[in-house]
Amino acid sequence: MCGIVAYIGTKNAYPILIKGLKRLEYRGYDSAGVALKVNGNTEIYKKKGKVSELENFCADKNTFSNIGIAHTRWATHGEPNDINAHPHRSMKGHFTIIHNGIIENYERLKKDLAAKNYSFYGETDSEILANLIEYMYVEDGMRSAEVAVRMALTRVVGAYGLVVMCNNEPNKLIAARKSSPLAIGLGEGEYYLASDATPIVEYTRNVVYLNDSDVAILTPDSFTLKTVQKDEEITPDVQRIEMSVGELEKNGFDHFMLKEIFDQPRTIADSFRGRIHPETKEVFLGGLNEVMPRIAEAKRIIIIACGTSWHAALIGEYLVEEYAQVPVEVEYASEYRYRRPIIREDDVVLAISQSGETADTLAAIRLAKEKGALVLGICNVVGSSIARETHAGIYTHAGVEIGVASTKAFTAQVTVLTLLAMRLARVHKAISDERYYNVINDLMAIPDKINLVLEKHEQIKQIAEKYKDNDNALYLGRGYLFPVALEGALKLKEISYIHAEGYAAGEMKHGPIALVDSNIPVVVVAAKDRYYEKVVSNIQEVKARKGNIIAVVTEGDSLLRDMVEDIMEIPKSDEVVTPLLAVVPLQLFAYYISVSRGCDVDQPRNLAKSVTVE
Ligand code: M6R
Fold this sequence. Notes:
Blueprint: E1 3-8, H1 13-24, E2 31-38, E3 41-48, H2 51-58, E4 67-73, E5 88-89, E6 95-100, H3 106-115, H4 125-139, H5 145-154, E7 160-166, E8 169-178, E9 183-186, E10 191-194, E11 206-209, E12 214-219, E13 222-227, E14 238-240, H6 256-262, H7 264-272, H8 292-297, E15 300-305, H9 307-324, E16 328-332, H10 333-336, E17 347-353, H11 359-370, E18 374-379, H12 385-389, E19 392-395, H13 408-427, H14 433-454, H15 457-467, E20 472-477, H16 482-496, E21 499-504, E22 521-525, H17 532-544, E23 548-554, H18 558-563, E24 566-570, H19 578-596
Parallel strand pairs: 15-16, 15-17, 17-18, 18-19, 20-21, 20-22, 22-23, 23-24
Antiparallel strand pairs: 1-4, 1-10, 2-3, 2-4, 5-6, 6-7, 7-8, 8-12, 9-10, 9-11, 11-14, 12-13
Helix pairs in contact: 3-4, 4-5, 7-13, 7-14, 9-13, 9-16, 13-14, 14-19, 15-19, 16-19
Bound molecules: 5-amino-5-deoxy-1-O-phosphono-D-mannitol.
């Protein structure tokens, strides 16, 4: 959470920083700020609200500078206001910093600094860090900003992506990372720093992703890499980034979320492209090749994830258990990491994450590695922390997802999980040829079928219009469509602020049915699969209590068409790949409700795309 951008070189930094902040705004948007060297002084401009507010505020200021740092915040310590916004300046003015992450021992450090007569203007942990660096600097005879940063960081417990400017060393940036991502783009006589590569890609494709404990010291023509602990130079690992600038634009859509929903036929195809042999239809997952023997011997697979990725994990559980006959457990990373779980060396732990930076998922990965399990990742962001910290993995290839509400990343995760389940099913010889080819063929047909669902977006918009003023909604599904009900409810609540709950339809009579009356819309995911009859019974139960039913049905389902208030049709497909179709109308439904309620679709309140704090 929070987005960091910085620049040092010969260009005017300000427009680069503002554009970069806008690209990173999905990470947090409570307040934004920038620090620039203007006529030899470090000027800080910051404002509560979005980056556009900062831009307006700076409109009449002198912002020309060849060096600068900028930040967009998702508040952890201290309310979102102008004062708590970054950058933060140390008390004596020697240092200005931007920080992403949490300084866990900041209360202790604050006390120590207060005892040395330091005072503070705001409530953030980051301001304490700025002062700690300054304290180290002054104590050390103001010898070296780099040494002060490294010394301060040895005293810090917590997470940081950090960029520091020092008044006495005006043509230098110092950057450091621990558990909070930081990428450095290498230009000609210039460097671009950012929380991820999206602000960098239009200037350079050569990037160094800092590792935990790395400290980078940058001047326009030098890049020195050390660690917090050691005053020794290390060689940076320069990587090429492949993403295109086009991926970062809305391409004529009103919102990134809508664009990403419409991207899905292509992104799903990208997820399986090159992984299914064109003739034999055998699944090939290059990233798992070396570890496949160990996966094949695993006694169980534990899938860890959060939010939407956790919903994808549930579908993965059903698939792997049914077709590969391997026991699977699905865990919330935030619970798993703290509940002293049993992890054995013959377990495979599979982490699923769009961003690859989710703090709880990363912590669970580290725990599993400590216990000797083989740890795999399914990630979207190439080069992300989870991608790098797992033993092996599979990228989802959904491309950059900017809308805070995950859509195309979810369907890409489900696609990859389907491939993995089919591969394991073959390895364990647990699936018949007929079943295997059905699943693979129907998976490959999904992109075209999603296009058919997307063509019905106007109809879904009209249904959304009918229900936009409701305060509550229930979502029900069974089998492979139960996680889809959970995902549909999450989409609605996060972008429209309507209270929505997803349930396994069979659970309804164990509590949620008490909510059903003529005021509550009940969204039932009722495609024609092995559970269909049971779901129809659940629909009858809701109808008997005067609930309004919106059903996602298989095309041509005249029974349900006559029984429910509204239907959203999806093409017929094998039941195990039907989640990929059934989720699409629910994404559109949530989207159109959010738009008609006037909500901020891409940046819903209180949320951030990448949850790098626990
Ligand atoms: O990046 P991750 O997949 O690890 O993120 C997990 C969740 O934070 C994420 O899926 C969240 O629930 C989304 N806002 C859902 O739309």
